[in-house]
Structures are given as structure tokens and as C-alpha cells.
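With this grant's support, we have settled on a layout for protein records. An illustrative entry appears below exactly as we store it:
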Amino acid sequence: MRVGIDLSVLRQRRTGIGNYAFHLSESFKNLNTEHKLILLPGPKGTIPFWSKHIGYARDIRRQGIDVLHGPANVLPLFYKGPSVITLHDLAIYKHPEWFPSGQWLATKVVVPASIKKASKIIVPSLATKKDLMELFAVPAEKIAVIPHGVEERFFKSDLRTANSDWENPARQSPVGSRYILFVGTLEPRKNLQRVIEAYRGLSDEIKKKYELWVAGGRGWGNPLSKPPHKPTPKAGTLSGDPGKGEGIKWLDYVSDEDLPGLYQNSSLFVYPSLYEGFGLPVLEAMAAGCPVVTSRQIAQNIEYRMSDMDNSIFHILYSVDPHSTEQIRIGMVEVLANPKLALKMSGQGVVLARHFTWSETARRTVEVYEMQV
């Protein structure tokens, strides 16, 4: 069987979906399989809409593909044949106010057509499966739940940079600084405004001990607003620097190479996103031995793989209502003021993160391919 993997998403700077496509394709290389997995890089340069959906579809057919996998939510409109898509989340359909305008063609045409056309749809969580069934009336048997994985380099014992000479000019602090960490593309649904408000509400004693470090490239709109809101006219803007002089450091985009050390050296990871199809940064932090405060929805996404563990997810993560600044603040205080709790969360988090591997994600994905021919 010849399987084509559309990797055109990798022509952009890698973030969530791009990381999924990259790590999945890399893990395929280590699988012992008789199938031919063909990595399709896509057209060079910026991809005009019709080049993607007509010319690229034609090029794919010339490869003699038996099954095509679109790992970034869509398939070329004019591709015909057995196909699989990975649909990461449906947030734009549930909360369109969180997203910039100008995505009509994708949301109204390309994604719905891809959902209808695909022979099988892979989703990372039961929550996304439920959304897909409710919003698009997709039958359960057409959906496969396959969680994302965590790279080995994130795990505490494997970190080359931990507690050594990891340095990033954006940090502007000596290695060993104590800090609370937020990682994510800066956009409204990541809930950064409430994280900052919760940090400001901490006691002076705690804020003297711990800075808040915000790592992430700028997405769209004003990430320092609370949805629902009206998008700001200029995408990717911040309203000044509200953290200046308040123990808040803006690190901007942090490379994949530097992320493990950033997690490893942090005292607490805070990620109360309003909606996620999965929530991979939470698992990466747990793998690095960092205690986590996150939203209940993300905790439930991760709980899917805990059937063989004794503990509840709510004993490993501190989960909160992401709409409550006070709950986020209390979560920070509970973990930072209780070293025994933080240590317990750290150890159990590493154990749980070990349940999520890219090799397992790749193996189960190949099983999906095999069912399509």
C-alpha cells in the first residue's frame, strides 16, 4: 500500500498542527511496516488556493497513492480516492468570535468538504469526536480517537539542557530563576489575560519569588482580551506591555530546541486555555516534571489514556474553570505554597506523560490507513 502524507503545512513556522505533522511523519520512519509511506512536501513557496486544490491534487494522483492523509484538517478539494484527515479541533465552529475574519472559504467550504470526503477522520480527543458528531452529524464509526504524543527529549531524565547552560536572550534572567510559565500562540482563546490577572492577584511574597514568563509567537487579535470580544483591527498586536515592571517577561516565540529546558526549569506551568482539541503543551510540561494548572476540558482530554492508572487525572493536574480568574490564582497558590503537592504532581505527571508516545500515535495511524483499502 502506498500512503501519501500531505506535509504542505510544514512550509510555515511550526506550531501546534505543524508539530503534529512533523512528529507523525518522523515517527513513521521508525515503524516496521511493509507499506510505502510517501511524504509529500507540497508546492514550494506560498501556496495559492487553487494551486493547492487543483494542481497539488493532480501531482498527488501522479504518485500512485492508495490512501492520502491530510494531517492539517483538510484535503485538496479535487482529490478523489481513499483518504484520511486529522481534525484537530472545531473551535472555530463553536466560537467563531475567537478567530479572525476572512476564513469563510476554509470554514464554509474546504473543511466541510474534507469531512464529507474523508474515508476516516482522526481526532486527538473524545471532546473533538463529540463535537464532530454534533456539528457535522458524522457517524461514530467514521471517527478514530488517536491522541498526540510527547517527544522523548521533553522527559526530565532526557533533557540535555536542564539546570545547565540553557540560555535565551529573551529571558534576560540568569539560569535558575524561579518562574511560572505560560506557553502558547498569543491569541484570545489561550486566556492569557486571566493568567496575568491571576498572577497580579498573588501575594507580594509569592511575586517576589516567582516571575511570570510568557512564551509564544503572536497570533491574531488582542491576546490580552477576554473572549467574546471584537477582533482588533491589526492582527498580532498587544495593547502596550501590561507586564512591564510587574515581574512579567515576554519571551516571544521559543524554538523547539529550547522548549524542554524552559519547561524543566519552571516551577509551575499555567495553561487555562478556553478550548483545546487536545492540549499538548500540558503533556510536554508534565514530561519535564513541571506541575501544571490547566482547564478542566484539557484535563478530561488527557484522562482518555488513564484506564490503567490508579490515580484520577484530578490528582495529577490542578484543574480549574478557565473563566474564573480566582480559580486560576488559587491553583497557582496551592501548588507554589505546597512543595509536597508540587513534588507529587511532578512525579505522577511524568508517569502519565509516558503513556503518550509518537510511536504509538504513528502505529495506530497506520492501522487506520490499512482499513481504507
Observations:
- The chain has two domains: 2-149+357-370, 152-353.
- The two ends are 8 Å apart (CA to CA).
